[in-house]
Amino acid sequence: MASDPAGQSPIARIDGRAGRRTGSHGAAEGASAGAFGGSFRDRARGLSVRALHPRLHPRAWRAYLDGAEASYRRHGVERVLNRVHLQRHGCALFWLVWRGGRVVAGVRVHGPHATVDSFAAPVEMAESDGVGEVLRVLRARLGEGVVEMKGAWVRTDVRSTRGLSGAIARCVPPSMRWFRARYAVCTADRRLAPAWRTSGAAEMAGVPSAPYPDARYETAVLWWDSRRMDHLTPEVSRRRDRDLYELAATARRRPSLEDEPHGVRTLPLPPRDPARGRPE
What we know:
Mean pLDDT: 81
Oligomer: single chain
Strand content: 15-25%
Number of strands: 12
Distance between the termini: 39 Å
Shape: globular
Structural class: alpha+beta
């Protein structure tokens, strides 16, 4: 489970220059390789996953916050969500998972951050003896771009939760490409780490877990490196490419889920459909 102290990055300005990182909060001024409103699908499980922005999609943003708050409350850790702060400052990008017209899962993205102080991970790992190493690696990787995945949740009151965690994990590679960030980072309880690994995550070596948000959890740091995805199976690599293609194609047809389409950026459409091997 990921959680949120105060001080997360404000809403990314989507009309700014692509890929630019500014300010003490480390908010990206513009999504350099994405289009809010685009989606990809998990056809086997009937899921649709959409890329959204708090300002462009306020109703969807409320749905994300409602779902996160309910999930955190169910686990008795709602205090770490800090909904009031999120309502005021938003995030750079968030993803929602739909099944049959109902929101069933979500996650959000902060960054790329300009300073280490903007990351939540060191705060959440403060009780780990390895927090110094976490800070060192964050500083070393800032220059190549680091986005932080936060607030992942899934509904448990649906007929089947199968595939929901995997759908959330699939949001990480497009989030990295979206902001031209080499890296992504998150904290998660070790019991949840296998789901993140399906999209290329690796637990940070040499960093003991932290009891965050409380002693029930063994929270670890997970990293993605877009240049080191060789361990992914061919099937997972093809799925990742297909997700990127679908995001670009659907955003061109439907730039916004609500009536505020101004300033939406478009993901450059790959020349070929990975599923068909020919130009679309």
